[in-house]
Amino acid sequence: MAKRVYQFWKGSNKFICGGRLIFGPDARSLLITLLLIIVPATIFCVFVAWHLRHEFSSYNAGYAILVMAILFIIWVLVILFLTSSRDPGIIPRNSNPPEEEFRYDSSVSDIGGRQTPSLQFPRFKEVMVNGLPVKVKYCDTCMLFRPPRCSHCSICNNCIERFDHHCPWVGQCIGLRNYRFFFLFVSSATILCIYVFSISAFYIKVLMDHADGGTVWKAMKESPASVILMIYCFIALWFVGGLTGFHLYLICTNQTTYENFRYKSDDRDNVYNRGCLNNLMEVFCTKVKPSRNNFRATVQEEVQRLPPQVSTREPEPEDLDGGDPRPKVEDDLDIGEDLLKISQRRNIEEIEEDIRSRGSSGPPPNTLEADLTLESDHRAQTIRADVRHSSWGRRSGSWEISPEVLSSSNVTESRSHVASKEVRQ
Prior knowledge:
Blueprint: E1 14-16, E2 21-23, H1 29-47, H2 61-84, E3 103-111, E4 114-120, E5 124-129, E6 132-139, E7 144-145, E8 151-153, E9 158-160, E10 165-167, E11 172-174, H3 179-210, H4 216-222, H5 224-253, H6 257-262, H7 276-284, H8 317-320, H9 326-358, H10 365-391, H11 403-424
Antiparallel strand pairs: 1-2, 3-4, 5-6, 6-7, 8-9, 10-11
């Protein structure tokens, strides 16, 4: 059975209805938001609006209060659903870094006596927005350069276009494709709080009028639900009302919450601000862009390509044709001879120091050094003849040392150590 994109999605999102609805990883918090709306709305309809049906001269005027409350609650819930269940503007991630952005550094590093060019990848690049340069950053997770006003959400693990913030109350990121619905949600919730608060206060006034000489305290005791709703709406109004005012300011100045908090201290011009009226038109009157992702599309297996490898040397004709592997043999022999010379120098220095300290009349150091040098030359020739067959067939450019060379050098070192003991005696 063919798999779909949402089943292999690398972000932290949750999908339902076969990938038709997408939520954030904290979608469970949406249940709390629903309870905070539905429970007080139900109390209002049952204990307040229902009792006001016949409190007006026109018989149907009281029903209008109840109907308006129900319709407004449904509207808020629909807007909440549209905010939290749609793609906020996720930019599809790449399977490989953009190869066209790779470049070779002009400076080369000297590794092992060979010049190696280093492969560089720019972390930032500039793009033009309204005639002004704007820096965009490379995202290591999504392997792409983020478009302007885009940011990577650490909660959803996606790059979001025109990222505003991640709202835990709706369980979703707020970005280009759902910011309009988010603002409508918080502003509608603000109006609903004002409506419930006002009607509850009006019901308290009606109860006071019905009781001859009734006081506010008696009316509140008669309808405690109205008092609870007034307190609840007063507290909620500080949150949703404050959010509405703040986001209205952001819309008029064409900012996002992320930009306002991050670049507030920076004294720089806002390249996206096109005037208050145009900014309002951009948010409320433009068509919502289609999603960049088709979560229900069938997955096509893609071969993972490795990043371009940096060659440390130019290929030689002999390497391309599978030619003579002798350069590798020569390298091994040179390294073997260097090891022999190092061991000889160390043994000679120990012998000379021992002769000076004891004052013995051993053979002159020059004669001993010459003997050891002749012996090492003879052994080097033997190593050269023995190693050819073991190193044959290897390509040049490797610094691996043949086991025969290492073993021969160890044998020579041990014999030189024995010779030094004989001299001491």
